Amino acid sequence: MTARMDKRFAELATEGRPALVTYFMAGDPDYASSLEIMTTLAKAGADIIELGMPFSDPMADGPAIQAAGQRALKGGQTLARTLQMARDFRKGDDRTPIVLMGYYNPIYIYGVERFLDEALDAGIDGLIVVDLPPEMDDELCIPAVRKGVSFIRLATPTTNEKRLPVVLENTSGFVYYVSMNGITGSALPDPSLISEAVGRIKAHTKLPVCVGFGVKTAEHARAIGASADGVVVGTAIVNQIASSLTADGQASAATVAGVETLVMSLASGVRAARLAAAE
Amino acid sequence: MNQSPHLNSFREGPDEEGRFGIFGGRFVAETLMPLILDLQEEWNRAKTDPAFQAELKELGAHYIGRPSPLYYAERLTQHLGGAKIYFKREELNHTGSHKINNCIGQILLARRMGKTRIIAETGAGQHGVASATVAARFGFPCIVYMGATDVERQAPNVFRMKLLGAEVRPVSAGNGTLKDAMNEALRDWVTNVDSTYYLIGTAAGPHPYPELVRDFQSVIGVEAREQILAAEGRLPDLVVAAVGGGSNAIGIFHPFLDDKDVKIVGVEAGGKGLDGEEHCASLTAGSPGVLHGNRTYLLQDGDGQIKEGHSISAGLDYPGIGPEHAWLHDTGRVEYVPIMDTEALEAFQLLTRLEGIIPALEPSHAIAEVIKRAPKMGKDQIIVMNLSGRGDKDIFTVGRILGMEL
Q1: Among this protein's residues, is B376 annotated catalytic?
Q2: Closest CA to B94 of B51, B57, B126
Q3: Residue A154 is nearest to which of B30, B179, B183, comparing CB atoms?
């Protein structure tokens, strides 16, 4: 695990509040706007940034994230440019952990060793690769952990007691609990069910547990953050970006500003989470 | 990549992790892993369950119409003036293609697993029709994902699926072909994990699908091998089949893989030519990558983004291929060659006129390869080709291209 990720969760523990983890698609709608969005996320209160790596066939994502990936690819985004974006971001921010999230094929084609070396050099702290379950750990997870890049695993409602130890075995950084069976961008399930699931995972691991899929508003963030160590927001940010674009798909004045407003509101949600829980 | 492995057998794959050499595997989201492991357990039990095998055999005989004939194509043989050509007549199966062999097997698995809802993806619509058929026969609701482009060019099959009670959901993402339909089916599955059985139609996807689809389709090769021995007293010199995802091909190839004197050729869709982007020849012109749950040869760019293929035949219009074919390609056991749209179209017409059989555009690619090879072979040599589907579904496409009024 990287020092940045450890330090961030330690700080959050001191503050007594959950992390706000924000996802967006690298290169959506273009490199410059996307880099500006990334710096804005951190300034507006995101504690950890998930940087989406666009893929042509995002099988576990809903229409919003798929469309964002298509916009990014159309804008010329590649894995090399996504790593460059992290490097550029690091020039002004060496504290916010960055987690790359996407699918395996672009990494496989780039070359696993080359990818990991460059990711470390670019200041990447962790990886979430949706289509690499524990059964495929030799591909990327074990080489990544060996080099000191966290490999963050998704646990889902189908991850039963028998499977949970398998999922957690090589996981590092944090555990990403996917709050429902389904694709990104679906409706948020009952917070009490989520709280129960978080408790179940925590019985098996000391790692922080962040919850995502379905979190859209500050109120959601507050409710989920009452039990989880972090709240992941993705589709809501991606939708905010999409709705700000001009008719021909270009960024507008509202693109960065809209993300800033949304993330500030979500940040207030996570900051209120434990206060509310304590009441 | 043509290493020469010192294998005792080409028929022992996959290993426990679902790998054929470096190909195959289980590259899926965590949500799906427990389902795939359940399926594997159920499949392992079913494989050795005499009651399961007996029911499969019974349905094969009385519902599908097995064994399908092995037909000596006398007029085509005379016309080409070389090797004797035999067709394995899978197009005579119930629903008009080999796809039903796999669907019957998987619907029995779905029932054993207590699933209540069937989803499937389809390209040409043959697998969609076969899925809708078995869903009707066994009383399951069925949803078929089909690329919007394919919905248009395979209208007769769309209508058949609807008549059979299936819901056809057009997928407009991407180019609206088989790849996009498969993405959408996977999304449905990940959302409805408890109730739903995903009936994959080709010998691809995460383990154990490539294995179980192959095993259900291997009845083609097992029969063909017995039939040619009965007809000619010996094995063929050449076995040919068209390859999209590769289920009909692996079905006829697999029982012949260890017969080293039998040459085996898989025919890919060369589309409008391999120089441009408009083809689906993933083995001839692609490279290894990871998509739809398995590592295999894919059409992709330098950044690992998957390209859209093109073929005149919707059933071959897929930028990947089953992992066992990828392995058979790398080991050199099977030779894979491309056939262009125009060549397939000529073969379609030639077979129709000479033998009175209207083939589907998918096996028309295999016929085109037979047309090239048979004249160069001796009259005492034998070719067995898998005639995997009938062409009723394609008459509108062909009519349009030939400028004929329908």
Answers
A1: no
A2: B126
A3: B30
Distance from CA of A278 to the nearest CA of B (A): 33
Is the minimum CB–CB distance between A189 and chain B shorter than 8 Å? no
The closest CB to that of B191, out of A136, A160, A181, belongs to A181
ipTM of the complex: 0.94
The domain in which residue B322 lies consists of 66-97+218-402
Contacts of B198 in chain A (CB under 8 A): none
Q: With bands split at pLDDT 50, 70 and 90, how would you rate the model's confidence at A277?
A: low
Nearest beta carbon to residue B28 from set A57, A66, A131: A131
Q: Which of A62, A105, A163 sits opposite B304 (nearest CB)?
A: A105
Looking at the complex, report in whole angstroms how far the Cα of residue B217 sits from the nearest Cα belonging to chain A.
Answer: 27
pLDDT digits (tens, 9 = 90+) for B131-149: 999 999 999 999 999 999 8
Q: Which residues of B touch A (CB under 8 A)?
A: 17, 25-35, 173-174, 179, 183, 186-187, 190-194, 289-293, 295, 298, 300, 302-306
B36, B178, B193, B290: best to mutate for the A interface, most A CBs within 10 A:
B290
Residues 6+ apart with CB under 8 A from B57: none
Given an 8 Å threshold on Cβ–Cβ distance, is B30 in contact with A136? no
Would you call B99 a catalytic residue per the annotation?
yes
The pTM of the full predicted model, rounded to 2 decimals, is 0.95
Verify that B240 and B107 share a domain, yes or no: no
Inter-helix orientation angle B99-112/B209-217, to 10°: 120
Check whether residue B170 and residue B297 sit in a common domain.
no
**Using alpha carbons only, what angle is made at residue B139 by residues B133 and B140, rounded to the nearest 5 degrees?**
80
Instruction: Verify cis geometry, omega within 30 degrees of 0, for the bond prior to B208.
Output: yes
Dist. CA B404–CA B19, nearest whole Å: 47
Q: How far apart are CA B351 and CA B388, in angstroms?
A: 14
> Which residues are CB-neighbours of A2 under 8 A, at least 6 positions away?
A97, A125, A126, A148, A149, A150, A173
* Residue that terminates a domain, selected from B198, B213, B228: B213
Does residue A276 carry a pLDDT above 60?
no
* Under 8 Å between Cβ of A225 and A269: yes
Percent of chain A scored above 70 by pLDDT? 97
Contact B193 A181 (CB under 8 A): yes
Question: End of a domain among B180, B213, B246?
Answer: B213
- Among the listed residues B41, B53, B161, B155, the one whose alpha carbon sits nearest the alpha carbon of residue B99: B161
Confirm whether B121 is a catalytic residue: yes
Question: Is the CB of residue A125 less than 8 Å from the CB of residue A150?
Answer: yes
Are residues B159 and B55 part of one domain? yes
Residues from chain A that touch B28, judged by Cβ atoms under 8 A, are 131, 133
CATH topology of domain A3-272: TIM Barrel (3.20.20)
Contact A104 B17 (CB under 8 A): no
Q: In the 3-class helix/strand/coil scheme, how is B171-235 assigned residue by residue?
A: ECCCCCCHHHHHHHHHHHHHHCCCCEEECCCCCCCCCCHHHHHHHHHCHHHHHHHHHHHHHHCCC
**Whole-number percent of chain B with pLDDT over 70:** 99
Which bin fits B403, alpha (ψ -120 to 50), beta or left (φ > 0)? Answer: left
